[in-house]
Amino acid sequence: MMAATLEERGNEFRAKCPMGRLGEPDDMAGISLFLSSGASAYVTGQIIAVDGGFSTVPW
User: Fold this and answer.
1) Is the residue at 45 inside a domain?
2) Cα angle vertex 16, ends 15, 21, to 5°?
3) Which parts of the chain sit beneath pLDDT 70?
């Protein structure tokens, strides 16, 4: 069986995502800058979900 592609299921993912859109590579820029700056000097051992709230939606 072939896995569904983003083109086939993209609307389903968009509908379930609180941000109402799929992520783009640029969406990683903010957290990348934060983690590479001194502002994150006391941050350790964290998992930071950059997913538009997708991980908060029950399936």
Assistant:
1) yes
2) 60
3) 1-4
